[in-house]
Amino acid sequence: MKIKKNDLVQVIAGKDKGLQGRVIAVYRETDRVLVEGVNRITKHTRAGGERGVSTGGIQVQEAPIHVSNVMVVDPETKTPTRITTRVETVDRDGRNKTVRTRVAVRSGKDL
Length: 111
Hints:
Layout: E1 8-11, E2 20-27, E3 32-35, E4 40-45, E5 57-62, E6 65-66, E7 70-73, E8 80-81, E9 83-92, E10 95-104
Antiparallel strand pairs: 1-2, 1-7, 2-3, 3-6, 4-5, 7-8, 9-10
Keywords: Ribonucleoprotein, Ribosomal protein, RNA-binding, rRNA-binding
Organism: Ornithinimicrobium pratense
GO cellular component, one term: ribonucleoprotein complex
């Protein structure tokens, strides 16, 4: 999965098409991401059974959205872009180390 936590993404399909938001969580097992302010649902909760807790009612919260319905936003042009990976070999302490960097296809800038 090329999308990571704290990436700025834009929804490209579904009821919230066109909205942008930060990724709160990534669920790799189900290929879903939780995006701030996107795919809001209402959840009915019962009041707690503990002493003094009566916080039942209707809550509005985000629900996960499939990763294929979002694209990372290019930091330079502020438009959705695909992601590629640039692999570099860096010499550190006499050892060759492979470093992978995510790159925006649209502008060529690092993410």
